Amino acid sequence: MYCSISFFCKVHDFHSHFKTIFMWSASSGLGMNCSWREYENKCYFFSTDTKKSWAAARHDCVQEGGDLVSITSAGEDYLKDLELPTWIGLSDLLVENQYAWSDGVSAVLYTNWNDKEPNNAGGAEHCVAMTHGPLVTGKWNDDACSKNHSFVCYRKKCQ
Ligand SMILES: [Ca+2]
Ligand SMILES: [Ca+2]
């Protein structure tokens, strides 16, 4: 179930710098599937229950006016809400070992690879998912793009 921006919004401030926007449909009761959140002037969607291939996940994000998330700094506060592994917008689909963000804009200046990643296992790993590292959650792994994972979209504004 994918949520439309047209659903009702309610804003919660639960600590000083993190504003969460909960979205739900009053009539259909779809609320628990909806999770758009505003963080530092961008709007994120977390597909908690929905798992898709990297391309299908990206398609959903684009349909909603966004893209798979680009991570360009170490601001990872939202990781605590994710079910891992989770697709992000990074891939080397075009040229092996040359990673690019799917939004076509963000430069790959920051990376957070897990130990021994990216390893392009079997010569067939071209899409990047956040996963668990030995000590910290949110480390990156190149994975097979056809696997069904949760995903995070982002767009510039929530409304
Ligand atoms: Ca690769
Ligand atoms: Ca890998």
Envelope shape:
globular
Q: Work out the radius of gyration.
A: 16 Å
Question: How much helix is in the residues?
Answer: under 10%
Task: Please give the largest β-sheet.
Answer: 8 strands, mixed
Q: Averaged pLDDT, please?
A: 78
Domains (count): 1
- Give me the CATH architecture, please: Roll
Counting DSSP H or I runs of 4 or more residues, the number of helices is 1
CATH class: Alpha Beta
The distinct ligands, each listed once, are: calcium ion
Strand content: 25-35%
Order of helices and strands: EEEEHEEEEEE
Residue windows where pLDDT falls under 50 for at least 5 positions: 1-33
For the terminal residues, how far apart are their CA atoms? 20 Å
User: Count the strands?
Assistant: 10
Look at the helices and sheets and give the structural class. mainly beta
CATH superfamily: Mannose-Binding Protein A, subunit A
The CATH topology label is Mannose-Binding Protein A, Chain A
Keywords: Disulfide bond
Pfam families: Lectin_C
Protein name: C-type lectin domain-containing protein
Concise overview:
It comes from Lates calcarifer. With 159 residues, the chain is mainly beta.
